[in-house]
Specification:
Blueprint: E1 9-14, E2 17-22, H1 32-46, E3 53-58, E4 63-65, H2 71-75, H3 88-98, E5 102-107, E6 110-112, H4 114-121, E7 124-128, E8 133-135, H5 149-157, H6 159-168, E9 172-173, H7 174-180, E10 185-187, H8 189-204, H9 208-222, H10 226-241, H11 244-255, H12 261-265
Parallel strand pairs: 2-3, 3-5, 4-6, 5-7, 6-8, 7-10
Antiparallel strand pairs: 1-2, 8-9
Helix pairs in contact: 1-3, 3-4, 5-6
């Protein structure tokens, strides 16, 4: 049965809009369970002619999606194949970007790492002032982002600002994210949901084929080489994961608070990591 047996997602439909709430406490970690749910959801939504707009949001007040699970690093192969292939987070993001319907991220909490990359892959992203936080902290633990941010951020905000985000590993407020072009708009928290819902319903009231054709026209002009860039990103990320230094640093991060509720709120665990040598 379509849209059944999801363990990390709650889905509601209203007048051509699918409202998808991520509900994977305590921090909406992008682990195997949530990744598989998002992958399957994308396939189902892509094939559902009744859905014209998708709104991705969180059921947790403090987290949109924390980041990708660090446990994957320890389980990753230590020898990297020279045959390049897409990462699962990249595949999920590309499906949401390429499906012939509009995808919107509504961010009210923390969207870091893979969570930031899922939001970046959506057609539009709106965030709550004073509540939403964006960031790419991967380099701090010895990783190269592997879910699309090295390719999407420069296209949105330019090379210099993208490198500031990717290498600085600092949180980016909703206000600054709007100024940099990370997101479409930052709105007062009490205005975010009404705005996003009104926009989603407005778009869903238009002809489905014109929505799809307009989106395809934009993508053909702006993202012709994105797939090649994503393959390059995936390979560089695999090389970082295979490093013994990264394996040790990720293990240390998990010991000093990564993937715990308190540790993830303000990324305090990064300041507890040993200096890189």
């Amino acid at each position: 049965m379509p849209y059944s047996d999801y363990s990390c997602l709650r889905i509601a439909f209203e007048a051509g809009v699918a409202f998808v709430s991520i509900d994977h406490p305590p921090i909406n970690l992008l682990d195997e369970g949530l990744s598989q749910d998002l992958d399957r959801l994308g396939r189902e939504l892509e094939a559902d002619a009744a859905v014209r707009v998708v709104v991705l949001q969180s059921a947790l007040p403090d987290f949109f999606i924390a980041h990708s699970g660090l446990g994957r690093v320890g389980a990753a192969p230590k020898t990297v194949s020279q045959t390049r292939s897409f990462r699962l987070t990249q595949t999920i993001g590309e499906r949401f970007r390429n499906m012939p319907k509009v995808t919107i991220a509504k961010v009210e909490g923390r969207a870091r790492g893979g969570g930031s990359e899922i939001a970046l892959a959506m057609d539009m992203s709106f965030a709550a002032l004073g509540k939403a936080v964006f960031g790419q902290p991967e380099v701090a633990v010895g990783l190269v982002p592997g879910g699309g941010s090295t390719q999407r951020l420069p296209r949105l905000m330019g090379r210099g600002r993208a490198l500031e985000v990717l290498l600085g590993c600092n949180d980016v407020s909703a206000e600054l994210a709007e100024r940099y072009g990370y997101i479409n708009r930052a709105l007062p928290a009490d205005e975010l949901t009404p705005f996003v819902e009104a926009l989603a319903h407005r778009i869903a009231s238009f002809p489905a084929h014109t929505i799809a054709h307009a989106k395809a026209a934009v993508d053909r002009g702006a993202f012709g080489s994105l797939a090649e860039g994503l393959l390059a990103e995936a390979h560089e990320s695999d090389l970082s994961v295979a490093s013994e230094v990264t394996q040790a640093r990720v293990a240390e991060a998990l010991k000093v608070g990564a993937e715990t509720y308190e540790g993830e709120l303000e990324l305090e665990f990064i300041s507890r990591l040993s200096p890189a040598t």
